[in-house]
Amino acid sequence: MAKEILHTDSAPQAIGPYSQGVRAGGFVFFSGQIPLDPLTGQITGSDCAEQTERVMENISEVLSAANLGFEDVVKTTIFLVDLADFAAVNEVYGRRFSQDPPARSTVEVKGLPRGSRVEIEVVAFCG
What we know:
This protein is an alpha+beta fold and 127 residues long. The chain has a single domain, classed as CATH 3.30.1330.40. 23% of the residues lie in helices and 27% in strands. The protein is built from 2 helices and 6 strands, in the order βββαβαββ. It has helices at residues 48-65, 86-96, and strands at 3-6, 21-24, 27-30, 73-80, 103-108, 118-125. It has a 6-stranded mixed beta sheet with strand order 1-2-3-6-4-5, covered by helices on one side. Helix 1 (48-65) runs parallel beside helix 2 (86-96). The longest helix is centred in the middle third of the chain and has 18 residues, at 48-65. It is globular and about 40 Å long.
């Protein structure tokens, strides 16, 4: 099974030794997205809801680079610095997955890169 590395300039560039996404078999595994502005490389959003909006925009861009959309996502993992932000994140996240939402895990973590309050990774099925 060959793997294909995916990349787009429309989403933030990797800030470490990893790929934005990797297609393998019938799936695409996307690296976690934090609320980085793809043009400036800086964190955006003053609260967790605003940061989640940026994260979901970044996810949309990497999905699009793989010719996929939110409807193709089969699994997500949400990392939160504070589970008290769960409702705010859920509201923003839920707008992208209004029908047939993917499986999901949510985990509280001690910290995230660059002081982000939220990070979300997705796995999509591409047939």
